[in-house]
Amino acid sequence: MSASASEFAGSLARLPGAKPTEIAPGQYRFELDPGDVVITVTELEDRHIKGTLFVFPQRRVEFKFTGATQEARNAFILQFDRTFQRGGG
Q: Which of 15, 3, 76, 74 is nearest to 42 (CA)?
């Protein structure tokens, strides 16, 4: 995922109906109904487009669901995807 640390944290805070708890640096827990999900974010090396000044910060994002139904997982991922979408054109 291409996002700075502050962009990522800001988007997490905007997830509808879910408030993250930071349980460790780069690790966030969300309560679901039922279960929960822990998101682990790992900083990767930035991507540079050769011959330009463009720099894209990179993050590895991992999800670990515990006790969540498939329906709860799907609903969370759908909201996560929508919240992290960016306009283009």
A: 3
Q: Quote the pTM value.
A: 0.84
Domains annotated for the chain, with CATH where assigned, are 5-79 (3.30.1370)
Query: Is 33 in a helix, a strand, or coil?
Result: coil
Instruction: Count Cβ atoms below 10 Å from residue 76 Cβ, excluding itself.
Output: 22
**Non-local CB neighbours of 73 within 8 Å, separated by 6+ positions:** 32, 37, 65
Of residues 85, 60, 68, the one with CA closest to residue 29: 68
Q: What's the rounded mean pLDDT across residues 35-50?
A: 93
pLDDT tier for residue 86 given thresholds of 50, 70 and 90 = confident
Please report the pLDDT score of residue 89 as a whole number. 47
